[in-house]
Description:
Blueprint: E1 2-4, E2 14-16, H1 23-28, E3 47-56, E4 59-66, E5 74-80, H2 88-109, E6 118-127, E7 134-143, E8 147-149, H3 150-157, H4 162-181, E9 184-185, E10 194-197, E11 202-204, E12 211-212, H5 213-216, H6 234-237, H7 244-260, H8 264-267, E13 268-269, E14 274-275, H9 285-294, H10 306-317, H11 343-368, H12 371-390, H13 396-412, H14 422-453
The structure holds adenosine-5'-triphosphate (ATP).
Residues 53-54, 56-57, 59, 61, 76, 78, 116, 142-145, 149, 188, 192-193, 195, 205-206, 208 line the site of adenosine-5'-triphosphate (ATP).
InterPro entries: Kinase-like_dom_sf, Prot_kinase_dom, Protein_kinase_ATP_BS
GO molecular function, one term: ATP binding
Binding site for ATP: 78
Amino acid sequence: MKVYCTRSSCPRPQNHFADLDDSATLKTIQQKYCTACGMPLILVGRYLPLRLLGKGGFGAAFLARDRYTPGMRRCVVKQFQPAGYLTPTQLQIAQQLFEREAAVLEELGSQNDQIPDLYAFFELTVQSLQPGGQDKFFYLVQEYIDGKNLEEELEEKGKFSPNEVVEVLQAILPVLQFVHEHGSIHRDIKPSNIMRHRNGRLYLLDFGAVKQVTTAATQTKGSTGIYSQGYAPPEQMSGGDVYPSTDLYALAVTALVLLTGKKTVELFDVYNNRWHWRTHADIAPAIADILDRMLSITPNQRFHSAQEVLTAIAAATTAPPPVTSPPTPATVPYFHQPAAFSLLELLAGAGLSGFAGGLLAIALYSLVQSSAIALGVAGLILGMLIIAQTRRWLDAKDILILVGILLAIILFVPALQSGLTIHNILFLALVAGAAAIALTALFRLVYKLLASIF
Ligand SMILES: Nc1ncnc2c1ncn2[C@@H]1O[C@H](COP(=O)(O)OP(=O)(O)OP(=O)(O)O)[C@@H](O)[C@H]1O
């Protein structure tokens, strides 16, 4: 098993322990130490970091496993590890922010299912790499959100459609309303801090910069300077007080970036001190007006609460529907709407599913010697695979793994080969995959034609 060392200065953080592949040893072993720097690897005897997820302003995030849960639950271990030189005061503020992230997560995460839960918060003192010294590390363990953040989605599939952006707003505004009602301001809303779980649900991450409204008055202005350039409004950049509308501004910038696929600097007209974005996006004027109001330079010209924005969006998107018509996308709860598929994603999923279906049909025919039953059962499983993909329970990567497993089983068990050569098996499965791609493309074309007619 691979275990990742969390000491930032470790020269070789990747460790490999063959004995931990045995689940009994994994559950009972006392501790393991980094072979390069001697750092204890099993954090508080419980969490095993597997790999680095990324480094942020105040630390690193690791994907980890909790060895005290039956399924070795995945979790995210965040370590406080400020980058660059900080004065003792700045260091203390940074440490307070990290502790605040834990406190806020504990309170908010347990009450809102779009904020990760806090599992643990602890500190660790270890021997420093300098002789005689000691290093102190702070850790926060939270729920792992299995998905992609919106920055990654944007990189992968390109700009979002206006509907997708409205869905993001409708999913995140209630979370912001909840955060604000609990006396906090997030202060770091941006695409990389919004994560879409594989089931379609959007989560708000990274409460490290969160500021309690109640303590705002006692904070020295400009003392922390925690914000993301381009997303933070003027009052935050200048170190002034922050408000719920500070988060609304950043959410609107997030919407512009998703909608246009452009960087914030490309959308802000410094000369006139205003956002210049409408020419880059084709969105309903009523929604564009809402975004522009959220982007007002002065906080009191923006909406005052997330709920106000939600109400404005509902008014802008809900045309009075006929009584019998299905709900419009805007009124369907967001979690029933997994993200739209790109054409490539759709065809790759279809091809892989078709390939898997072909392999299954061959294996089933060997067992039952009836082409009707073999094709019927393979078709049924293929249908289930397609449904699982459209609901985003499985993605193309999962189907690829399934194909690999099926192929390995069929290649190693001659009784499942229906008397065919390996070449023929592969050829037939490829034909099934190609047929699935062709059918999907045809359906999509017909669907688009019908949609454009009606
Ligand atoms: N609960 C989580 N579940 C899954 N991935 C997470 C979770 N929290 C953070 N990540 C991922 O870990 C990576 C690092 O996150 P982190 O919050 O430390 O920094 P960041 O958001 O990239 O930067 P910054 O702190 O400057 O905003 C990011 O890619 C983020 O998407």
